[in-house]
Amino acid sequence: MIPYSDPTKRVSATTKRKRVWLVANGDLRLSANQNCWAAQEAMEHALAESVEAAGYELVRAHPYKKKEKHGFIDSQKEGMRVFSKIDPDVKLVVAEAVWQYSHHLLHGLISHRGPILTVANWSGTWPGLVGMLNLNGSLTKAGVAYSTLWAEDFSEKQFCTMLKRWLKNGSFRHRTTHVRSLSRVKVPASSEKVGAKLAADLLRNKAIMGVFDEGCMGMFNAIIPDHLLNKTGVYKERLSQSALYYESTQVRQSEALAVRRWMDRKGIRFLTGPRHKDHLTDQQILDQCRMYIAAVRIADDFGCHTIGIQYQQGLKDLMPASDLVEGTLNNRDRPPVKSRDGKRVLYAGEPLPHFNEVDECAGLDGLMTYRVHSALGQPVENTLHDLRWGDWDQSGTVDDYVWVFEISGSVPPAHFTGGWRGATSERQPAMFFPSGGGTIKGISKPGEIVWSRVFVENDRLKMDVGRAKVVKLPLEETERRWNATTSQWPIMHAVTYGVTRDQMMARHKSNHIQVAYGRTAADADKAMYAKAAMAAALGLDVALCGTRKSGKPW
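RESULT FIELD:
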């Protein structure tokens, strides 16, 4: 473990100049912090060696906590205590080998005047890169200057070169030549017309975004300020997870059973067992079916065009995971839900776009994607994923760098090879989901996709959009990737066109990335152009990232 030094203790000017302070932000959940601590400790040790090789000393600004058995900042109140003792002008490193709640330390980073460096390991099992991307997006939204680094091995030449530059100068920039402003791109007239028409309709008729408790797991970057969102014609309906819980208890057993039987007929396999603590149980599934019905009914009550359920932390101790609900909502082919009086089928024949973890940026993106793809006759199902990890294909099937896009919920079965029949449902990991509940797990089918991300920077809404393909990998390689990440979750093997791993990490302002399929490469190009045009007409600053499938620039 790297040494802890009391930040309030006086030191010589030379020591102060050569000392770099480290903070390690963590999860709110004790079990997650304890399970991940060994990986964090190893990462900090490796980072300290690289800092020492550059002529500096890395010290912790907060100690290991023997009682809790970890050394993470695990709450906003603890973060405020830690930062109250840190000199606001020192060099500060935020080192992450885990998922972290950005609000635990965002306050201190906002008021910090010295250089800030965010650093992450490169691991699917210990997802520091996911936590760092969320923190980077939150810092960007807050207007805080920072530099950022990541690596599989902190002794890599490129990592050490950039680290030395930051230690010497206090900042550096990555090359992002893959990013091109939409204003510099000639958008096909037909796509521009579709985008403009859809934007005008949204601005005229408006839309309602149902938010079941804002602010999931510290994701400050995922909250769109009302004054920015409303300019797009979208307005929040702030809903309560307490109401969702109550409404779920009012759903009749027969209604929940009908949803379960519909899913069984469609072919999804539920991997159940007898023990609530360890297994997915039939009762957990029925409670998820109740939540599905309740969510649709509440959305109908308020006229919502898209909804997001926080789940963590508000519902995790009350109900099974919302993931089965979320993926089902995003699918056009889903169990019918009737109004409470049984007279109407709600949102008949259509998905009810859902944004996982109440990520409002994904909610706005998903709503636009749904409308663009509907207008173009393309598959309407879309979802966010975590930009979870990536690696070269170890099977040798493809020569490309293949990303692991993976998320606990929201993925519609239409994205899977085999659809509903290609899906299984497994119990969520107990470390994060004490009340259990099933996932919708599957392998995303090969094909052409549009990827995108809405984010906030300089008090403006922005969107990055690009193209990619989903590749088919051998089952053995897929299992390797699942075992390196979270095997209960759905997976997408994605290859981004004209965007390298490091370019994506340098530019992307979130742990989440939105994806939707086109039927062909040409169709996906048209959908991308139309969505970019719609976003621009709504006032977003839009950038096209990467290249066409052919490698040619946009």
